[in-house]
Amino acid sequence: VLENQDLQDSIKPQKVEFHSLNFNTTLHWQPGWAREARDALYFVQYKVYGQSTWQNKDECWGISSHVCDLTYETSDIQEPYYSRVRAALAGVYSNWSLSCRFTPWRETMIGPPMVTVVHSNKSITVKLQAPRSPYRRKRGNKIPMTNYYDLLYQVFIINNLLDEQHRVLVYEGKDKVVKIENLRPGVSYCIVAKMYVPMLDHSSAYSSRQCTVL
């Protein structure tokens, strides 16, 4: 039988990390190295950097999952946060495992825009919609990410005749409707788009392809 100290060490959570997309923020960790650790329960706390007291996250207190949603606990997006996790098994508690410091505004990943494509015989009209945050206005609708950042849309066209991997940047800016003209009828074109944050020099992933034949 493992001594208590050994058990404490062997069930201690590993790799405690924040993951965040459009301010939807979760804490992830891996179980300790002991085989028994898969039966452990986990306890999560968080605080703003500089505060002395840790807050319990009630919904993640004594859970078997390795993920905890901290979206609303980290809603002051300019503040730096820490979180920590400990494990318990057979009445033995591990020490706390600490995350790195996490500042939502700086570190959240921004998702791609929604793209809708309408075609005529020689042009494509691209309609763009920025991703939304989980936070709501008083009227109840979700606040778009453009409220928090100076964002640009980047629109790329793929001419399937030439090369499916070759994306050509045809627009960068803030317009939500972009018209691409002088295209060849009968040719299959695909559109993908990204969000770009100039201030942080971050780009989102590409949107899913929207393809059309003129």
Automatic annotation (TrEMBL):
Pfam families found in the cross-reference section: Interfer-bind, Tissue_fac
Residue ranges occupied by any Fibronectin type-III domain in the UniProt entry: 6-96
Domain Interferon/interleukin receptor: 108-212
GO CC terms of this entry: extracellular region; plasma membrane
Matching SUPFAM superfamilies: Fibronectin type III
Keyword terms, alphabetized: Disulfide bond, Receptor, Repeat, Secreted, Signal
PANTHER family, per the entry: INTERFERON/INTERLEUKIN RECEPTOR, INTERLEUKIN-22 RECEPTOR SUBUNIT ALPHA-2
InterPro entries per the UniProt record, alphabetical: FN3_dom (IPR003961), FN3_sf (IPR036116), Ig-like_fold (IPR013783), Interferon/interleukin_rcp_dom (IPR015373), Type-II_Cytokine-TF_Rcpt (IPR050650)
Protein name: Interleukin-22 receptor subunit alpha-2
Function: Receptor for IL22. Binds to IL22, prevents interaction with the functional IL-22R complex and blocks the activity of IL22 (in vitro). May play an important role as an IL22 antagonist in the regulation of inflammatory responses.
Organism of origin: Hypocryptadius cinnamomeus
Residue ranges of the TM segments: none
Subcellular location: Secreted
Family of this protein: Belongs to the type II cytokine receptor family.
